[in-house]
Specification:
xyloglucan-specific endo-beta-1,4-glucanase activity; 9-stranded mixed β-sheet; mainly beta; 18 strands; transmembrane; binds 2-acetamido-2-deoxy-beta-D-glucopyranose; transmembrane helix; Jelly Rolls; 332 residues
Length: 332
């Protein structure tokens, strides 16, 4: 029985890339970096990512919107802005979520380019495309992350994890140098620009349903990394690998640690850049509750939120992240 969501992001596989797609997200006070930095904005901001900051098409609010034949491209360069484009199908919220940017941060900044349909009629299971173009110089060593632009699944969670049977993903993303989406990820070209980032799903879990939806209060943060560009962007517990599991031919290795809020951060990290992934990642959750004990979630804990995006650390020149396709289907 499907209770959930099907969130297919984008998808036109044409020769010319159209900008990006999706990802989940968490509001600003929601996401904490893998390195455990405090969110910069805890409430009081115009939007915490939990509410709708956009107008009826997801644009507006003084944002630059180009409209062409019922298709709108809107650029959001805000530090935090919840974009919940009205949709007659699945609902999701996008957010530039630049929670680590301070008055001392330097660089070209970060903008999220979201494509919406004026008629609000997306193809089944299809979310708006998006891409993210950014460049930041190194932040201080204690606060290297500038943000986690992402897309979050709405209306499906919280859900007890033992009431979920599958968490199917169908994913294709790219990262490239420059201001437009790349057709494929040229790792060497990005290394030459000293890119420090990851591409990851970010989930929060707790025994309490309300806390599981609050990234500051949830006991567990569980991440699934599809790329770690270099060791500057490393998960908690790096250097001390745990168990591994292979899904869809992709090997994920578990790293565990605690952040500065004493939350347990459990990260499954691929050892190679994984642009495409099609498969059920639910076994990565069952492995955790099968460990037992208080350092791991229990099977009757709640999954409160699930987001997909990229953590922006630093890079020499502009890079663009494009989630060409993001489909998530949570089955109970
Ligand atoms: C936003 O993305 C669309 C589709 O890829 C592109 O046509 C448009 O130029 C982009 N806008 C900006 C400001 O980059
Ligand atoms: C909605 O708008 C898009 C873009 O203009 C168009 O391709 C699509 O056919 C429209 N859908 C409906 C049901 O009108
Ligand atoms: C670089 O990215 C920023 C943020 O998306 C954008 O405002 C800027 O126009 C891009 N290009 C240059 C040359 O800075
Ligand atoms: C999340 O928890 C923090 C800390 O208790 C609280 O300040 C914040 O308002 C909560 N956020 C939401 C969206 O409930």
């Amino acid at each position: 029985m499907v209770f959930g969501v099907g969130l297919l992001v984008n998808a036109v596989l044409v020769a010319i890339p159209v900008g990006g797609s999706v990802g989940a997200l968490l509001g600003i006070d929601a996401h904490r970096a893998a390195t455990g930095q405090k969110p910069l904005f805890t409430g009081g901001n115009s939007d915490d990512g939990m509410s709708n900051g956009g107008d009826s098409t997801g644009g507006g609010g003084g944002h630059d919107t180009i409209t062409n034949n019922g298709v709108q491209h809107t650029l959001y360069c805000d530090l935090s802005y919840g974009i919940t484009p009205p949709s007659k199908t699945e609902q999701y919220t996008l957010n530039p979520n630049q929670w680590g940017v301070t008055s001392d941060s330097t660089g070209n900044g970060l903008c999220m380019n979201v494509t919406t349909l004026v008629n609000q009629t997306y193809a089944p299971q299809t979310a708006p495309e998006f891409s993210i173009t950014w460049q930041f110089d190194h932040g201080p060593q204690t606060a290297p992350v500038h943000g986690y632009p992402n897309i979050r699944v709405d209306n499906v969670l919280p859900k007890e994890i033992d009431q979920i049977s599958e968490l199917n993903l169908d994913l294709h993303w790219t990262y490239g140098v420059g201001d437009t989406p790349a057709e494929s990820t040229d790792v060497q070209a990005l290394k030459n620009e000293n890119l420090a980032t990851n591409v990851a799903i970010d989930m929060f879990l707790d025994a309490d349903a309300d806390k599981s939806q609050n990234a500051s209060e949830a006991k567990f943060e569980v991440m699934v990394w599809f790329w770690m560009s270099n060791e500057e962007a490393q998960p908690h517990g790096w250097g001390n690998p745990g168990i591994s599991r292979t899904l869809d031919g992709t090997k994920f290795t578990l790293y565990t640690g605690k952040n500065d809020k004493e939350q347990y951060v459990l990260s499954w990290v691929t050892d190679v850049m994984t642009e495409r992934f099609t498969g059920d990642i639910y076994p990565l959750i069952t492995d955790l509750y099968n460990f037992g004990g208080s350092d791991y979630p229990a099977k009757d804990d709640y999954l409160g939120s699930l987001s997909f995006g990229t953590e922006a650390y630093s890079v020499n020149s502009n890079v663009t992240f494009w989630a060409e396709q993001y489909k998530i289907d949570i089955k109970s």
